[in-house]
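Structure first, sequence second, as always.
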C-alpha cells in the first residue's frame, strides 16, 4: 500500500540519520581521547595523516548530514550537499597550510601538520601551477561554489538580504540619533497636519506589538517600507505578460481547504490591526492592510520522492510504444495539482495521434483524466498533464508575500495562483483590460472572485480604486458590503443591476468629456495633470458581476448593450469589467460580449461545447475542479493551466472589517436614487397603447393574437399591452379560451387619450 511504503521510507531516513550522528560522536571522542581502543587510535591516526589539524571537520559534517536526514526525511538534495561539503573541506584544509613555508608543505602534510596530506598536496599543486595569487583566487572561487552547493542559496539573494538588513539597521540608528538630538515643534506639526494631503500608509507588522513574524517581506520592499514610513504609489507603466518567480514548495499531504476557518487564530497583531483608527486630521489617512491579516499556510513536509514520477515516466513511454510511438520524456514539471510530462515525438509522427491517445494514457496511468497540450507554446514537445494523487492547496498569502506583488506599483494587481511548474502568477487587470470568468457550480469561481477583490484591497485605497459589485445570487459577494471602496451597496436586485450598468455607461461618458476638455487621452494622463494642478485625481472603477445569467434573464437587451459599450470604450476611462457566470452558453455569453472581453478564465465545465464557448477551444471539460483553471490573458495563443489561490470566509471577514474600521462608505447618491426609482416606479406605458385600445373598441373583444395581427408586433409586446390595459381597467381578466371583455367606453377612451398630445399623435398614425 502507498501509506506503508511512505512509512518505510521515513524509517529508513531516520535510521540513516541516527547512524551518522552516532558515527560523528564516536569520531569526535576518538579525536579528543585516543585511548578509547584500537578503533579509536586507528581513526585518530588516519584522520591526523589525512586532514591534520582539520580533522575536527569530519564529525561536524557527519552530524550536520545526520540531523538533515532526521528532520527533512529526504535524500533529494543530499548528493549536491555532499559535493559542497567536500569542496569546503578541501578549501579549509588547504588554508591551514598557508602558515607553512613552501619547501616544507609536503613534509608537514605527511607528518599530520596543517591540513594533512589532503591540504598539503592541494596547496603544493596549486602553488607550483598558479603561484600565490592564483591560489588565493582559485580557493576563493571554490569556497563560493562549495557554499552555494551546501546551502542551495543564491549568493546574490544572500548579498541583497544582508544589504537590506544592514541598510534598515543603519536607517533606524540614524533616526534614533536624530530624535535624540533634535526635537520637533508640536505646534508646527499641528499646523502642517491641517493642510496635509491624503497619505497612503502601509500598515505593516513592524508597527504592531506582539507579532514576531512577517517582517522580512516588508524589508525587501525597499528602505521606506522597511522603516514603516508612508509610501505613495502612482500607476506607472503596465507590466507585460505574466510574472513568474520562486519555485514551488508542495504543502502537506491530505490537507483540507477549509483549514483557515478551523485553524485561524486571532493573534495580538490581528487585533491591533482591527482596532487601529486613523488619526483625527483634516484628510483621510488610509493604511493598507498587512499580510498578517491572512492566515498562515500549513507548511508540510516537502515531498521530493521521485519514485512515483519515475514509474509514471516508464508507464507513459511503454504506453506510447504499444501504440507504435517511440517517444521519450524530456522534462517533468510538478505543480500543486498537476504534473506535466513533456515528450519528444519521433520524426514522422503526427501530433494528432498522440492527442487521440488521451483516454488510453489515462487508463495506463490510473488517472481520472488526462489533458494533452500539443504542442506546448515555444517548445517542440507535447505536454501530457496528469493529476497528482494529492492536490496541494495554494493559499493567497503565499502569493501576496512575493516580492513582485509587494513591489508592483499597479493598483489592480491580481494574484491568481500557481501554474503547472509551481510558479506564482501575478497579472494586472488594467492590462487585460476586462475579464470573463466561467465555470460549473463548485469549481472555484466564487473563491476566485474573492481573491481578486482581496488582491485589490491589499494594493489600493478608496481614493485609488472604486468597486461596483453586482451579486444577483445575494450570497457570494455581499460580505464586502460596507467597505469604503464601494460606490453603492452590493446590488442584489437584477432590475437595479441594469440601472447600475447604465450609470456606469454615463460615468464613462462623463470621464471622456473631462478628458476632451483637458486635452488628455486616458485616465493616467488626466490624473497626472490633476496632480500637477493640485486637484483630486479620478479613481479607477472595477465593475464585478457575479452571475451574468440572472441579469440576462431579466433584461437581456439592456445588460448586453451596457456591457458591450463598457467593454469597447471603458478601458481608457479607467473602468474595468469582471464578469462571471456558471452558464457559459451562447445565449448568456453572446458573440458581442466575447468579442469585447479578450481575457478569459475557465474553471471546470460540463462539456466541450461550454469550453469552446468561453475559450474558443476544448480542454476546460477535463479540469479537476477545486480551483483548477485555464487562464487565457489578452494576447496569449493558448491558455495557461493554473491552480487558483484559496481564501477562506474568515479571512474575507477580517479583511473587510479592517477597512470598515477606517472609514464609512461614501456612496454615489445618483446610483442609489436611480436604482430606487427603477424598482418603485410603475412600468412606462407603451407608445402603442392608445392604438391597441382603439382596435379593441372597434372589434368589441380583446386578445393577444388580435394585437399581433393588427399591429405586427411580437407576442411579448402584445402580452405586455394586455397586462397594462388590465391593470388600468380597460379590459377584463383572463377567461381561458374566450377573448377578454372590453370594459372601457368610447367616451372614456376620448377623455383618456385624446387629451394628451402624444396619444393624439399615436392615433393619427
Amino acid at each position: 500500500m502507498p501509506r506503508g511504503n511512505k512509512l518505510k521510507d521515513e524509517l529508513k531516513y531516520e535510521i540513516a540519520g541516527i547512524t551518522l550522528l552516532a558515527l560523528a560522536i564516536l569520531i569526535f571522542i576518538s579525536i579528543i581521547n585516543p585511548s578509547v581502543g584500537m578503533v579509536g587510535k586507528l581513526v585518530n591516526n588516519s584522520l591526523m595523516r589525512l586532514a591534520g589539524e582539520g580533522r575536527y571537520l569530519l564529525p561536524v559534517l557527519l552530524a550536520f548530514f545526520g540531523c538533515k536526514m532526521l528532520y527533512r526525511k529526504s535524500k533529494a538534495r543530499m548528493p549536491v550537499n555532499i559535493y559542497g561539503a567536500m569542496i569546503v573541506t578541501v578549501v579549509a584544509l588547504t588554508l591551514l597550510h598557508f602558515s607553512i613555508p613552501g619547501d616544507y608543505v609536503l613534509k608537514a602534510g605527511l607528518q599530520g601538520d596543517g591540513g594533512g596530506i589532503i591540504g598539503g598536496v592541494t596547496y603544493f599543486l596549486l602553488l607550483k601551477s598558479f603561484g600565490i595569487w592564483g591560489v588565493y583566487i582559485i580557493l576563493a572561487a571554490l569556497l563560493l561554489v562549495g557554499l552555494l552547493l551546501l546551502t542551495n542559496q543564491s549568493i546574490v539573494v544572500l548579498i541583497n538580504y544582508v544589504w537590506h538588513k544592514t541598510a534598515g539597521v543603519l536607517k533606524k540608528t540614524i533616526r534614533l540619533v536624530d530624535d535624540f538630538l533634535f526635537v520637533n515643534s508640536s505646534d508646527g506639526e499641528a499646523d502642517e497636519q491641517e493642510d496635509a494631503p491624503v497619505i497612503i500608509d502601509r500598515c505593516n507588522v513592524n508597527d504592531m506589538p506582539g507579532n514576531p513574524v512577517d517582517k522580512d517581506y516588508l524589508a525587501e520592499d525597499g528602505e521606506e517600507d522597511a522603516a514603516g514610513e508612508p509610501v505613495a504609489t502612482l500607476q506607472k507603466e503596465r507590466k507585460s505578460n505574466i510574472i513568474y518567480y520562486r519555485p514551488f514548495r508542495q504543502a502537506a499531504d491530505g490537507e483540507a481547504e477549509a483549514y483557515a476557518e478551523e485553524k485561524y487564530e486571532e493573534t495580538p497583531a490581528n487585533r491591533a490591526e482591527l482596532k487601529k483608527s486613523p488619526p483625527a486630521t483634516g484628510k483621510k489617512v488610509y493604511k493598507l492592510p498587512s499580510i498578517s491579516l491572512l492566515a498562515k499556510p500549513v507548511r508540510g513536509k516537502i515531498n521530493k520522492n521521485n519514485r512515483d514520477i519515475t514509474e509514471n515516466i516508464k508507464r507513459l513511454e511503454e504506453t506510447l510504444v504499444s501504440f507504435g510511438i517511440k517517444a521519450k520524456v524530456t522534462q517533468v514539471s510538478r505543480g500543486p495539482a498537476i504534473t506535466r510530462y513533456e515528450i519528444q515525438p519521433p520524426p514522422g509522427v503526427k501530433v494528432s495521434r498522440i492527442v487521440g491517445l488521451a483516454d488510453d494514457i489515462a487508463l495506463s496511468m490510473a488517472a481520472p483524466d488526462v489533458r494533452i497540450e500539443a504542442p506546448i507554446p515555444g517548445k517542440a514537445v507535447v505536454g501530457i498533464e496528469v493529476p497528482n494523487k494529492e492536490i496541494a492547496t495554494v493559499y493567497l498569502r503565499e502569493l501576496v508575500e512575493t516580492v513582485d506583488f509587494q513591489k508592483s506599483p499597479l493598483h489592480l494587481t491580481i494574484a491568481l495562483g500557481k501554474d503547472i511548474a509551481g510558479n506564482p502568477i501575478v497579472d494586472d487587470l488594467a492590462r487585460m483590460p476586462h475579464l470573463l470568468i466561467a465555470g460549473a457550480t463548485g469549481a472555484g469561481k466564487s473563491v476566485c472572485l474573492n481573491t481578486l477583490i482581496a488582491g485589490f484591497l491589499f494594493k489600493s485605497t478608496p481614493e485609488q480604486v472604486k468597486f461596483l459589485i453586482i451579486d444577483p445570487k445575494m450570497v457570494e459577494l455581499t460580505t464586502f458590503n460596507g467597505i469604503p471602496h464601494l460606490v453603492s451597496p452590493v446590488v442584489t436586485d437584477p432590475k437595479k443591476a441594469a440601472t447600475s450598468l447604465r450609470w456606469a455607461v454615463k460615468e464613462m461618458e462623463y470621464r471622456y468629456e473631462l478628458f476632451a476638455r483637458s486635452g488628455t487621452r486616458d485616465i493616467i494622463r488626466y490624473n497626472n495633470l490633476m496632480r500637477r494642478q493640485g486637484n483630486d485625481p479620478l479613481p479607477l472603477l472595477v465593475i464585478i458581476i457575479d452571475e451574468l445569467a440572472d441579469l440576462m434573464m431579466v433584461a437581456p437587451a439592456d445588460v448586453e448593450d451596457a456591457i458591450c459599450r463598457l467593454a469597447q470604450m471603458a478601458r481608457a476611462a479607467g473602468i474595468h469589467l469582471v464578469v462571471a457566470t456558471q452558464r457559459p452558453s451562447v445565449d448568456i455569453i453572446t458573440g458581442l460580449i466575447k468579442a469585447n472581453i479578450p481575457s478569459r478564465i475557465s474553471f471546470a465545465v460540463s462539456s466541450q461545447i461550454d469550453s469552446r464557448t468561453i475559450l474558443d477551444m476544448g480542454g476546460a471539460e477535463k479540469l479537476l475542479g477545486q480551483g483548477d483553471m485555464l487562464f487565457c490573458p489578452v494576447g496569449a495563443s493558448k491558455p495557461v493551466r493554473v491552480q487558483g489561490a484559496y481564501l477562506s470566509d474568515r479571512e474575507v471577514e477580517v479583511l473587510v472589517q479592517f477597512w470598515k474600521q477606517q472609514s464609512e462608505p461614501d456612496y454615489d447618491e445618483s446610483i442609489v436614487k436611480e436604482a430606487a426609482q427603477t424598482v418603485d416606479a410603475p412600468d412606462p406605458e407603451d407608445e402603442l397603447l392608445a392604438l391597441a385600445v382603439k382596435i379593441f373598441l372597434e372589434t368589441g373583444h380583446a386578445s393577444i393574437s388580435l394585437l399581433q395581427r393588427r399591429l405586427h408586433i411580437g407576442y411579448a409586446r402584445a402580452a405586455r399591452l394586455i397586462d397594462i390595459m388590465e391593470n388600468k381597467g380597460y379590459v377584463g381578466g383572463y377567461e381561458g379560451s374566450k377573448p377578454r371583455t372590453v370594459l372601457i367606453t368610447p367616451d372614456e377612451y376620448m377623455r383618456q387619450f385624446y387629451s394628451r398630445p402624444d396619444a393624439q399623435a399615436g392615433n393619427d398614425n
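Margin note: The chain has five domains: 2-156, 186-293, 307-387, 394-680, 689-764.
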